[in-house]
Amino acid sequence: MRYLLLAAAATALFFAAYWVLMRHEKRHQMVRWYLMGTLVLSLLLPAIHLRLAVPQQHIAGNLPGIFSQASLPGMASTASTASTTATADAGSVSFAQVFLWVWLTGFAVAATLLAVRVLRLRRRMRALPCREEDGIRLTLLDDDTPAFSFGKHIVVGTKGFSDAEVQQLVGHETVHVRQGHTVDTLLCELAKAVLWFDPFVYLYARELKRVHEYIADSAMMSASYAELFYHQVSGRSYSPLANGFDYRMVHQRIAMMARHRGRSGWLKPLAAVPVAVAVLLAACSPKSSPLVGHWEYVSGTSEHVFLGDNVPYPGFTVDMGEEHLLDDLTFNADGTASFLAWNNTMEDHKFVYEPCALEWQVVGDSLLLRNERGEEVWHIQQLDDDTLVFVDSDIFTYHGGDGHQRNTYTYRRKK
Description:
Strand order of the largest sheet: 8-10-11-12-13-14-15-16
Radius of gyration: 35 Å
Number of helices: 10
Distance between the termini: 24 Å
Number of strands: 16
């Protein structure tokens, strides 16, 4: 949904720049490439998801602690409420889902109609008798079919035209073929299928067709060619996919022929630069920590080292098995985390975990977990796309002195 809205906004901004600055520009090739280039940019730029490294602002506030059983009941209530809300949300249909299904339906219809029109046009043109000249297939019909071209095939109805006028019509369509205007038209049609809800993409198609005619008129400019406009003005059109000698724009085309080229017109396409930058920045998102996501506990070890001059016990390391502090760990991009925390109790020889939440932040290689009484600092030992290993340390006292405990936890990213 975000991509489609950004693409529609891009077409609106790019087209507004064209309408204000280049609608009457006589550098037709430049205008053509501006329209084609900005249409392609409108479809591509919103799909570029660059990650911008910006400082993350963490939510401040007193979140329940996780290291005492007394703080858990309130948190469990909050988690229960959140779970109920999430369940209710899961059962409802969001606006984004409705929009997606509507768009998919419109896209399927538009794409199907486009495919049918292309196949129908190609099938009919293949059935026409033709001769090939310089790599172009030419069909002259003894009727009033309006002149048009598609791909490398030109069709001209000769009824009511002199031989010289027929040659001018063929020359006009040859310009369309040599310039590859069919490719432009098909690209516009594909853009219309993707952004079928966007009115500006239809304006793009209309203006591009107009520019195609200006280009062909400029290449064929002569007094006899100008007279051809007045010979047979009609509103006939063979196909919206084909390039034709369009009589409906006769006044605009004559006016464009008489227009003089300005000196600074080549600077006008630069108006697309700030628009492209704005769309690209809108498509970007802040770079989040690689911690962001859902993690599940895999394994853990606890290493005990006894300190002092007269140490009666050697150090030892034990496999923690199911004994770990956090499970179902979720780090959110806003600096909050939710998880199941061991509340230091056991029932039926099983550890009891309850829902909790706190704030987190990564500073260097340290993971800071904030609760209402301060911070727990855990050292990140390994962090990649799928594995998170961190350690926490503690000092304990025994009858012979002090000891050092080092716990290592390994988590795997949930798929």
